[in-house]
Design brief:
By secondary structure, the chain is mostly beta strands. The protein has 1 helix and 10 strands; from the N terminus they run αββββββββββ. Keywords: Signal.
Length: 128
């Protein structure tokens, strides 16, 4: 089931449909748990980007904290200048803000995405 969810999320974000480790964009679900805020949960996901790969514009039903594990990622948040982060740097993305992320380095890039979201809502909503 976890692999099916990862493939579905990769498709939503424009990733390849192939179910193997060499996907251009691969999401791995790490944690999902209720929290003390009624109607909300925490979700943690590792996202691996091949060089040059873009996670197209999308939103989340809550806040996201993106931590770059390796490589270099450029984030574009609606209404803001792009920001480029390297391994060890973090970015806060408010609820409902349309954003994208792109691997602008020469090797693989990875982020740890932690979401505090409304329980039961789709985690990723493609931008219109």
């Amino acid at each position: 089931m976890k692999m099916i969810q990862a493939i579905a999320l990769a498709l939503v974000l424009g990733g390849a449909a192939a179910a193997h480790a060499e996907q251009p964009l691969q999401r791995t679900d790490l944690l999902k748990s209720d929290i003390d805020v009624p109607g909300h949960e925490v979700v943690q996901v590792r996202v691996d980007f091949a060089p040059g790969v873009l996670a197209p514009s999308h939103t989340h039903p809550g806040e996201e904290i993106a931590f770059v594990i390796e490589g270099t990622l450029e984030y574009q948040l609606e209404g803001r200048q792009p920001v480029t982060l390297k391994a060890g740097q973090s970015l806060f993305i408010p609820t409902g803000v349309t954003h994208s992320a792109k691997n602008v380095g020469s090797g693989k890039a990875s982020e740890l995405a932690t979401y505090i979201v409304r329980k039961g809502a789709p985690l990723v909503v493609p931008a219109k």
